[in-house]
Design brief:
This protein is mostly helical. It is about 65% helix and about 0% strand.
């Protein structure tokens, strides 16, 4: 996974807006899984 994708995930974990950097299509499912985990953590912290 590229640095750009990892930094986008970290931004979401900190409460930022999801960003979709350019990525190969094969990396997209992995990116979405990490993004889903990051947004799931965020929702749990608020409750």
């Amino acid at each position: 996974m590229s640095e750009r994708m990892l930094s986008a995930i970290q931004t979401v974990e900190k409460g930022g807006r999801p960003v979709f950097p350019l990525m190969p299509f094969s990396a997209f499912p992995e990116y979405m899984a990490l993004l889903r985990k990051a947004t799931g953590k965020e929702k749990k912290q608020k409750h």
